[in-house]
Amino acid sequence: MSITEQTKLNKKYDARKKYLRAKEVAEYIGVGLSTVWLYASNGTLTPKKISSRVTVFSIDEIDKLIEVA
Questions:
Q1: Whole-prediction pTM value?
Q2: Nearest-angstrom CA–CA distance, 6 and 53
Q3: Which domain holds residue 50?
């Protein structure tokens, strides 16, 4: 990933944000949306339902997943 792309991601995912939606997670870690939901179903990531139609994932947990990989 180029420095410009990384800078854009850093601006998009503000450090004050604690949770990301599934589509944002996919972009953040560079996988497909279906992979994010696979990680949620097999327990690799813990989804948090904040309403009947909105599910979020902890950035801290995502960062730990990236460190392991």
A1: 0.76
A2: 30
A3: 15-68
